[in-house]
Amino acid sequence: MARRIERFYRTGMDANVAPVAEPKRKATYDDVLAAPEHQVAEILDGELFLSPRPALPHTRATSRLGAILDPLDDEGGSSLRPGGWLLLDEPELHFGDDVVVPDIAGWRRERLPHIPDAPWLELAPDWLCETLSPSTARIDRTRKLAIYAREGVRHVWLVDPLLRTLEILALDGDRWVVAENHGGDDVVRAEPFTAIEVELARLWID
């Protein structure tokens, strides 16, 4: 008993009390570089997230949406190619310590006239799209949306290829508001791309 009392005073804790866990190490870009090639690596609020490569419904919706928006990716402008935007698939974006990879992102040409010769961009896009999947929808709607709002992204499109929906979010101050909801076979002219029609039926796998 004396030995146990002596141990209590010497260590400052009872032998039955579990030690306090060490705090988690903050993720760094080295963790992103070390991620397996078949996974998408992102750092959100200091935590590393690894997501599997998307399934085919996700890939189909994203690639078809990119094809529909392609006329916007032009320096000039005409009735056939409205232009004015620079669009990138899965760009790596660095916002301070956060590293995010949206499915598609777009910058107005007056803000980003040309693609820099660099591995990532630090300039927040004007618009981006996240194509939701069961494994990523939660962080897309929570942590990533919070980062996008903080960085001043004006519009976010959330495409759900399983539910066949398109949700348009607009930034109001520091919070997101749902500007529009569409689904199924709707034909949409939505901010910030009202110059073209988006036929949602083209996004879905039959």
What does this structure look like?
- With 206 residues, the chain is of the alpha+beta class.
- The protein has helices spanning 2-11, 29-33, 56-69, 137-151, and strands at 39-44, 47-52, 85-89, 93-95, 98-100, 104-108, 127-131, 155-160, 165-172, 175-183, 187-188, 198-199.
- The termini are far apart.
In short:
The chain has about 210 residues and is an alpha+beta fold. It has helices at about 1-10, 30-35, 55-70, 135-150; strands at about 40-45, 45-50, 85-90, 95, 100, 105-110, 125-130, 155-160, 165-170, 175-185, 185-190, 200.
Terminus-to-terminus distance: 75 Å
Number of domain modules = 1
Strand order of the largest sheet: 3-6-7-8-9-10
How many distinct helices?
4
Assembly of the depicted chains: single chain
The helix-and-strand class reads: alpha+beta
CATH class: Alpha Beta
The major sheet is characterized as:
6 strands, mixed
Poorly predicted runs are: 1-19
Q: What gross morphology would you assign?
A: globular
Question: CATH H level: which superfamily?
Answer: tt1808, chain A
Radius of gyration: 22 Å
